[in-house]
Design a protein that fits this description.
Helix content is 44%, strand content 8%. The protein has a single domain, classed as Rossmann fold, CATH 3.40.50. Strands 2-3-1-4-5 form a 5-stranded parallel beta sheet, with helices on both faces. The protein is an alpha/beta fold and 265 residues long.
Length: 265
């Protein structure tokens, strides 16, 4: 593993106590950057709203869609509904300590992954020309010190590795989800999440959530964020041969947990 990146990862992994600090809810919805967070969070919210007879969230923008699922420190708008926290956080090293887990109870986690190559393109498309004033090739190479970029290849490697270790150590406490499976059968994947969190969710509520969460319906409720990707190109078309060579080399040297993805062929 790259020594500069190893030091940065260690420094960050011993300083982020967020997930250990907030634990009073039924489950943690953990999602990689640009892995379908808005979509999945909104669908789950619609299912909860339907079951309990409340209106669906008025907005789909992340900061304004916290009626049912939000940051762990947010107070619930409807206290009689299940409490689920949503986060992109990478856990502290103590989070997957077996010794710590004997004294500290943490809620179950559902972790959503996406092909890193696709997630990087999605992030770049959203922020290019806004806060990302650089070429895709420059963004792809990122900053292994974590100072200049957010959600670059190095962030994704940290996210994959840290949550991979947690899943490996506590498989009964964590379930793995994939963006690709969510696209293929969203209703079944939502059912898995609610079941894992110990929440009974009727199939009609799940079906309602899927019907309310089409790209068009979600885009109509968006306030300011450009979060739906309508570009029909294959994301891999963004990568030059040099870009792909860099990606494969970086992944092969630093990624320990690939979560079923094949990045090297």
């Amino acid at each position: 593993m790259d020594t500069v990146f190893r030091f940065h990862a260690f420094r960050r992994d011993i300083s982020n106590f967020s997930i250990l600090k907030y634990r009073d809810f039924e489950g943690y919805l953990v999602t990689g950057q640009h892995s379908g967070t808005h979509w999945l969070k909104y669908m789950l919210s619609c299912a909860i709203a339907h079951k309990h007879g409340y209106p669906t969230p008025k907005h789909t923008d992340n900061a304004k869609s916290n009626d049912f699922i939000g940051h762990p420190k947010h107070k619930p708008l409807y206290p009689d509904t299940p409490r689920i926290a949503s986060t992109h956080q990478i856990p502290h090293r103590l989070y997957d300590s077996r010794l710590v887990r004997t004294f500290v109870q943490v809620p179950p986690s559902a972790i959503l992954f996406r092909d890193i190559r696709h997630a990087l393109v999605s992030f770049y498309e959203k922020w290019h020309g806004n806060t990302l004033n650089m070429s895709f090739s420059e963004f792809l190479r990122g900053d292994k010190n974590g100072h200049q970029h957010w959600a670059d290849i190095w962030w994704h490697i940290r996210f994959y590795n840290r949550w991979g270790r947690t899943i490996e150590r506590f498989p009964e406490h964590s379930i793995t989800l994939y963006y690709e499976d969510l696209k293929a059968d969203a209703q079944n994947q939502m059912s898995r999440i609610f079941s894992h969190f110990g929440i009974d969710m009727p199939q009609d509520s799940l079906a309602f959530a899927v019907s309310e969460s089409s790209r068009e319906k979600m885009a109509a409720k968006a306030d300011s964020e450009k979060f739906v990707r309508f570009d029909k190109r294959d994301p891999l078309e963004w990568y030059s041969q040099d870009d792909m060579d860099f990606f494969k080399k970086t992944i092969s040297e630093n990624l320990k947990y690939a979560h079923g993805y094949n990045y090297l062929d």
